[in-house]
Design a protein that fits this description.
This protein is an alpha/beta fold. Helix content is 38%, strand content 14%. α1 (18-29) packs across α6 and α2 (63-77) runs parallel beside α3 (101-125). 43% of the residues are buried.
Length: 237
Amino acid sequence: MESSLHDRVVVITGGFGALGRALAAVLAEKGARVALLDRTQPAGEQTGGDRMLLLGGVDLGDAAAVQAAFGQVAQRWQRIDGLVNVAGGFAWEKLAEGLTEASLATWDRMYAMNLRSAVAASQAVLPRMSVPGRGRIVNIAAGAALKAAAGMGAYAASKAGVMRFTEALAEELKERGITVNAVLPSIIDTPANRADMPTADFSRWVTPRALAGVIAFLLSDDAAAITGASLPVSGRV
């Protein structure tokens, strides 16, 4: 049976990271056409092909650069059906140590990386979503958005902002048949996280491919009745 994602055009921001690559692979298996955007350049083993577009050097903080990148995708495939806002970052910093100028900069950086980037990409994609009932936006929030741990104030606040942005945009787009949802992963099993937490039980974490499967569902026709949701994807954490 052919997947409902066959020939859909999906843009992934932060596409060259562990989750972006895993999601691209899952979507490709389902027959989608995928554009990966990232501020870095693709690694040597990453290749494009007829059904994949790699756009490196895209600064999601630069509105003109974002618009230009989405314009390239639309020019190649004439439309965009889905957007997944993977781009983001993490910082750990205790508030009790005092809000210095450096720590305030961390709050600005988390806002820019996790929330502003999602807003900019969503603004760029909306004029290019033209097929009624097929438009999909999926944002990556975090389990920490529901309850912040020590040292995670800036990160958790920015991800909570992603949840509120998801809800507001979903309400605005209901009549256009565009769904907007978020996933709230716990710790994702990436090489970077393993290096940062070498004594953890990695088997309890969410793998990039498992999280990608949930995102792919939210992009599909089967998820047409879901919008404004923030779905925890916690593994066994």
